[in-house]
């Protein structure tokens, strides 16, 4: 048994995935597909895009959530950083791993204030809010300081064009053997080129369709 598979988290997570699947974004529906693609890859207009996405959950898949829990448990993680909290589904999986590892801290970053408020309610309902600090605002600011000296796992699931920049902020804190999990990497070829380079200090492999799992080597 684990915190992930017992109450209150088990039922909460299933309920939230159902809600996520039913969510719509009337504003985003008015944006042409070509413009959506441009915004997804932009390093300057990402705040505009994620303002449009404020009603969408943008969660990791169920399998990715389980993968995050497994990696955090196997690493005996005590310090986790998450870029892109949204409504907190990935956060719940990671916080469950921290609980089962004996405690720790997860520092998350989320731009949209309404999502921060809802995510905090979900964390409290799941009984893991004592393990999580969500920093509201642009991650290039919120994750630029006051991070744990040794980070065991970094999840990248915010604005895709910023993956390399956020990794750059956290990289010096990643301990040898730390995991970096990046979702939706089809939108960030420069990030993939970096972590897959033999000179980068990572061992990196694709997982499923568009996830990259990397280990910090030193």
From TrEMBL:
Its EC number is 2.1.1.-. Keywords: Methyltransferase, S-adenosyl-L-methionine, Transferase. The keyword Methyltransferase applies. GO terms for molecular function: methyltransferase activity. Gene3D superfamilies: Vaccinia Virus protein VP39. InterPro entries: SAM-dependent_MTases_sf (IPR029063), SAM_O-MeTrfase (IPR002935). One of its GO terms (biological process) is methylation. PANTHER family: PUTATIVE (AFU_ORTHOLOGUE AFUA_6G01830)-RELATED. This is Class I SAM-dependent methyltransferase. It comes from Pseudomonas citrulli. The lineage of its organism: Bacteria, Pseudomonadati, Pseudomonadota, Gammaproteobacteria, Pseudomonadales.
């Amino acid at each position: 048994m684990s915190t992930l598979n017992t109450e209150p988290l088990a039922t909460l997570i299933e309920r939230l995935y159902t809600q996520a699947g039913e969510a719509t974004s009337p504003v985003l529906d008015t944006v042409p597909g070509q413009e959506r693609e441009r915004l997804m890859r932009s390093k300057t207009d990402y705040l505009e895009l994620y303002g449009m996405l404020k009603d969408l959950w943008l969660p990791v898949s169920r399998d990715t959530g389980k993968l995050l829990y497994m990696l955090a448990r196997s690493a005996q993680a005590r310090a986790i950083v998450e870029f892109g909290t949204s409504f907190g589904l990935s956060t719940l999986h990671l916080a469950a791993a921290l609980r089962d590892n004996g405690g720790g801290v997860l520092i998350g970053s989320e731009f949209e204030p309404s999502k921060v408020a809802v995510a905090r309610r979900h964390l409290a309902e799941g009984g893991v809010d004592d393990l999580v600090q969500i920093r509201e605002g642009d991650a290039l600011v919120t994750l630029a300081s006051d991070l744990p000296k040794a980070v065991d796992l970094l999840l990248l699931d915010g604005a895709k064009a910023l993956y390399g920049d956020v990794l750059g902020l956290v990289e010096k804190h990643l301990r040898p053997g730390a995991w970096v999990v990046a979702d939706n990497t089809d939108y960030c070829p420069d990030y993939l080129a970096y972590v897959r380079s033999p000179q980068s200090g990572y061992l990196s492999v694709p997982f499923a369709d568009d996830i990259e799992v990397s280990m910090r080597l030193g």
